[in-house]
Amino acid sequence: SDPPSHCSPSNGSSRTLSAREMYLFDTGGQYLDGTTDITRTVHWGEPTPFQKEAYTRVLMGNIDLSRLIFPSNTAGGIVESFARRALWDVGLNYGHGTGHGIGNFLSVHEWPVGFQSNNVPLEAGMFTSIEPGYYQDGEFGIRIEDVTLVVEAQTEKPFLTFEVVSLVPYDRNLIDLSLLSPEQIRYLNSYYERIRAHVGPELRRQRLEEAYAWLQESTEP
User: Fold this and answer.
1) Which residues contact 58 (CB under 8 A, 6 or more apart)?
2) Which of 187, 219, 196, 189 shows the shortest CA–CA distance to 67?
3) How far is residue 117 from each of residues 58, 79, 103, 144, measured CA to CA in Å?
4) 128 forms bridges with which residues in the sheet?
5) Above 80 in pLDDT, residue 170?
């Protein structure tokens, strides 16, 4: 089952957070120069081995689709299984779409871009989310959502790939490194270098030293 994507707290539904459980937060905002829709899942305590494996496999799917190089004029529905493969390998899946178009100061979920079978072919310049997940009924939910830009790949013939533009570290506490391939680890390290280069100086400019220290710790190779 999939938790509601966007919800508001109320006195009847609110409950106290605990360091003994996973916490999924779906964040976003609309600005004059763009719209953000970013989901991260964290665990502040000691996750179970299954929680770590499920999280890591969701992350593997996010990475595998994000770094995919594919022919021009390819529809999102054709490539979205790359986000599911690491989960499928062990008989797991998620029941929602793998991503949606994102408007520029427009709709957060913007048709007709995305990864469903009836979306338009992907073209350079489109923004879409990539957001695989896994949900264990009554226990925990995992989703890792990034905003990506479709760009031209560095190939001889005109192929496409994704550039992740949301620069937020993943939770190291939930990653089982033994499951990741060398290519996936290289991708993570490259992503973390980009986060440090782009976000670090801005945190220092704003004198947010505690946040800067957290960022450095969270983006260690």
Assistant:
1) 41, 86, 87, 94, 132, 133, 134, 142, 143, 144
2) 187
3) 21, 10, 20, 21
4) 101, 148
5) yes
Question: What is residue 120's DSSP assignment?
Answer: P
CA dihedral 28, 30, 35, 36 (to 10 degrees): -20
Question: Taking the model in full, what pTM does it have?
Answer: 0.93
The two three-digit tokens of residue 219, written as one number: 């983006």
> What is the rounded distance in angstroms from the CA atom of residue 13 to the CA atom of residue 4?
13
Return the percent helix, strand and coil in the chain, to nearest 5. Answer: 30, 25, 45
Give me the amino acid identity at 28.
G
Q: Rounded to whole angstroms, how far apart are CA atoms 168 and 147?
A: 11
Helix (H) or strand (E) holding 60: helix 49-66
For residue range 73-96, what is the model confidence (pLDDT) as tens digits?
999 999 999 999 999 999 999 999
The helix/strand/coil state of 90 is coil
| Residues in contact with 119: Cβ distance below 8 Å, sequence separation at least 6, in sequence order | 75, 76, 77, 101, 111, 112, 113
- C-alpha to C-alpha distances, 126 to 14, 64, 159, 219, nearest whole angstrom: 37, 19, 14, 28
Q: Other CB atoms closer than 10 Å to residue 198's CB: what's the count?
A: 11
Cα–Cα distance between 130 and 138 in angstroms, integer?
Answer: 25
Alpha-carbon span 70 to 151, nearest angstrom: 11
Rounded Cα gap, residues 103 and 37, in angstroms: 11
In the predicted model, is pLDDT for residue 214 greater than 70?
A: yes
